[in-house]
Write a structure and sequence with these properties.
The structure is a homodimer.
Chain A lengths: L18 E6 L11 E6 L4 E6 L7 H12 L4 E8 L5 H19 L6 E8 L6 H13 L6 H7 L8 E9 L2 E10 L12 E6 L5 H14 L4 E2 L9 E6 L13 H24 L7 E9 L2 H13 L1 H8 L5 H9 L12 E5 L4 E6 L2 E2 L5 H8 L3 E7 L5 E8 L3 H9 L3
Parallel strand pairs in A: 4-5, 8-10, 9-16, 11-15
Antiparallel strand pairs in A: 1-2, 2-4, 3-10, 6-7, 7-8, 11-16, 12-13, 12-15, 13-14
Amino acid sequence: MAVNLSTPNPADLRPVPGVRLGVAEAGIRKANRRDLTLIELAPGSRVAGVFTRNRFCAAPVQVCREHLAVGDIRALVINTGIANAGTGEPGLAAARGTCAATARLLGIAADQVLPFSTGVILEPLPVERLVAGLPRAQADLRADGWFAAAHAIMTTDTLAKAVSRTVEVDGRTVTITGMSKGAGMIKPNMATMLGFVACDAVVSQDLLGALVREAADLSFNSITVDGDTSTNDSFILIATGQAGNAEITAAAGAAWAALREAVIDVAVRLAQAIVRDGEGATKFMSIAVEGGTDRDECRKVGYAVAHSPLVKTAFFASDPNLGRILAAIGYAGIDDLDVSRLRVWLGNPDESVLVAEHGGRAASYVEEAGARIMAHSELTVRIDLARGSAAATVWTCDFSYDYVKINADYRS
Amino acid sequence: MAVNLSTPNPADLRPVPGVRLGVAEAGIRKANRRDLTLIELAPGSRVAGVFTRNRFCAAPVQVCREHLAVGDIRALVINTGIANAGTGEPGLAAARGTCAATARLLGIAADQVLPFSTGVILEPLPVERLVAGLPRAQADLRADGWFAAAHAIMTTDTLAKAVSRTVEVDGRTVTITGMSKGAGMIKPNMATMLGFVACDAVVSQDLLGALVREAADLSFNSITVDGDTSTNDSFILIATGQAGNAEITAAAGAAWAALREAVIDVAVRLAQAIVRDGEGATKFMSIAVEGGTDRDECRKVGYAVAHSPLVKTAFFASDPNLGRILAAIGYAGIDDLDVSRLRVWLGNPDESVLVAEHGGRAASYVEEAGARIMAHSELTVRIDLARGSAAATVWTCDFSYDYVKINADYRS
């Protein structure tokens, strides 16, 4: 039961000039399931990525890092069903074999291919079935393939996640389209979060690299369902350079500002979609922390609240449980936090109420107001640390019976 | 449903010479409930403590820190029902008032009293009812009051937690008795963990301070139910000095070794009792990490596994889910961890099986062995990081439907 999320309208997903996508049934783990996606990029495209910091990172993540270091990427291959993680040397060979086969098919070099896998971990990737499916994915390549691809990369997602928008850059219309998958690190062996955003802007490789890191920081790295970081998390930003704008080479000026804002917006919406589809989620929660001395301490507080099982179960119960929120702020790890100065508000899209100040419950707060706010499915906990001017927001979902049910019943 | 834990036998709880305990019904929050405990210490007793690092620490914790800095503690007062946390200046006044009233009653100074509160947070402590109950607690003072006190300090605990043992120190028999309360930080407004251990050894104040920190580190600071750190956590170690041994003044020699071992043993058993009584717990899990470069990184790995909702729900389901364990190890924060070298075993008191090595599932592992081990209620995850010689163990419980039910249904 996703929270305020619906399947994207195919007509809303705009093709990005220079990008074609094709899908196929390769029988990776299950029959009659589109589980293979090929993305072809026009010559001259630039690609940047960020990846999981889990030390048990999957084989394809290792290969992606190697190939991005070389550059001149021309294709991406994504399979679901098997994550190719915890697979040792044979897993690396399978990821490299995937790239080699794709390269032969497209007439490019193996290190111009980025491989991605998501699904069960600790199981071998059936690379021969994947390779056998590649020609069918190639035959399916088309500019309007985003809707089909967003479905083909799903694992336990209940809905496909894709977003598109345009933005004026240097007098040209730039198109940005992206897709993501993941039900938020909660599906143990279904390894996790993938995000792909493509635009046709002309932007230098350095700036693209900076933008993918900033966008990831503000989107996929600002969400949590249960604090578990997967082995396969990957976020890729593509710029095909076909929009014809003057190349953006400095992080300044109107063109950069417009592109930056639009890419971050798309990434945030894709990341939020993962939280909205978090298994068992009934509430979408924004933990907005302001007044910190730096962004890092705001994130610490945001994550402490967002990860607290006590806060998450209280939100599931629509219980405005201030004690749990205050306790989580208190143990977030800011040693010199002055709790007598901080203020906390609970809000939904209709109203926001001061609930805590002076180290305890706000004198003006009444339980009825808290209960009224919590009845909504979109909730905000706003926290002013009153120490500085930095801010950060973390998005999460609540913690329900269904979370335990799904994760306890699940057998690999 | 506590895991392999039962009510202590009153006859097993040995009086500690120099310590008397009394309980009373003070009506702090509920009627007909022993909710007030007074502990009187003989002159010359030494006391040391460690407290929550939560910035929202409760008023009594602040007062305890002040009074311990002065020293010469002669009494402890513990109330349940109201935690006196998140109560601002009035809360501090209530804690100080408790000490002043106790001091008048016993003919000592107010700063010779340590106050402790546990229960609902954000509510004012009814200090006048507490003070009115003190004479009845005083009238009840007796050396064999541990069993009654262990019950009177309970909040949502399903069982009282108390442990006693003796040890030879310098040819004298030293008695160590302790009690604890807490269902493991999982009861939001029922603020949390208290531990009191008393012995009659003669030991210097400096060593007592070192021992309370070491014992806390190896016991109460090595457990987790859900990662939520409370506002009131306190652990107190008392040495009345009545055993007649030569004063222990150096962290060396047989007398120190014997006392140290026995105090840590009592603290560990009291801490484990809290996990065994963790709400919704059906399994008691030891995460034993070895081969680390230092104890800190072993604890990081232990806590990453122990806090993972995915691991905890898998254990609830008796599912030997290796992927979840390996992923948690991978994101524990050891940047240069070589996953190809680490090894993981699953075990119960009867057997232990190698389940992972070389970056993936162990070749010798079969699912049947995992399932057989997981059928037990006492489980060990042993992890060899193969980087050094440090080790640390973290204890936790599994994560069940009942956890969500208890915490979602709970209303302050």
